[in-house]
Amino acid sequence: MQAHILLVEDDPEIARVVRDMLLRENYKVTWATTGLEGWEDFQENSYDLVLVDLMLPEMDGFTLCKNIRWKSDIPLIIISARKEDEDKVTGLHLGADDYVAKPFSLVELKARVASQLRRWRRYQGKEERANTSTYLHGLKIDWDQRQVTLEDVKIPLTSKEYDLLELLAKHPGQTFSKTELYEYVWKQIEADGVPTVTVHIKALREKLNDPVKIPKFIQTDWGKGYRFIGELL
Question: Are the C-beta atoms of 206 and 192 separated by less than 8 Å?
Answer without folding.
Answer: no
